[in-house]
Hints:
Oligomer: single chain
Distance between the termini: 46 Å
Strand order of the largest sheet: 9-8-7-6-5-4-3-10
Helix content: 40-55%
Low-confidence stretches: 318-324
Largest sheet: 8 strands, parallel
Structural class: alpha/beta
Order of helices and strands: EEEHHEHHEHEHEHEHEHEHHH
Number of helices: 12
Amino acid sequence: MTRTVLESKTxxxxxxxDEPFCVIGERINPTGRKKLAAELExxxxxxxxxxxxxxxxxxATVLDVNSGAVxxxxxxxxxxxxxxxxxxxxxxxxxxxxxxxxxxxxxxxDSSVPGxxxxxxxxCEGRPLLNSVTGEEERLELVLPLVKKYxxxxxxxxxxxxxxxxxxxxxxxxxxxxVERAADFGIPAHDIVVDPLxxxxxxxxxxxxxxxxxxxxxxxxxxxxxxxxxxxVSFGLPNRHGxxxxxxxxxxxxxxxxxxxxxxxxxxxxxxxAANMLMNHDPNGSEWIRFSRILDAVKEGATFPEACAAQxxxxxxxxxxxxx
Length: 324
């Protein structure tokens, strides 16, 4: 079976068909988070550190680290700050160093700037996941040599120079092309984690069915692990977390092995824990039992992150209270 191995200095995480679903925490990302971008511009990493610890406590086994910040004030003073190639590499190094200092989970180095990817790789301890490469020729030639140089796995996004196709057969063909081009660099298929691109179901009614079929093909025909931006499926809909919570177990059943998502949402994490048990990826249901103690604490008034942190502090041995 395909095994994609990620490592921090002290921990190993395996993404695979016979492994528990890998939750990649998405929150360390200033894109669309103006407050976080402003903090980073001011050299304040307190929210980053809080988000890192909170996501790990809530169940993330990998943390995505995205350096795509826009430094508006500095840009007005120095035109170099308008260039992501100037801003992102040093920011990525700082983010990786600070997160590694307080957590021990593997990282996912996430940027559209090759210099930032290499800055993250050069700073990272262990074997991170690189996010990402596409089927675009320029991107393949820039990113695959980094993947080979640092011997790391990479997320392969199923779009190319023609853009994102609504035809799932085209998206499969792009994924196959990336796997084949990676092989030319000596990069094995088990180090390619394909993102088949989840479309919003509110705009395309067949989006869920498309991605489930694509994931099955990617598993059966290419033998690769898969990931996605899980919340994309619910974009523009009310009660998005309910849609996400239904989507995730269905994707897991189809063969998806990881997702970049927000682990601080209890409904999605409950769905993943249940799916792990139903897929026989939770021996004796021990993780489900541990998670049920967290849900009990939430029912008694704790927030989900508070309950997760308390359970972690107790070493996962908290006792369930008897119900009245």
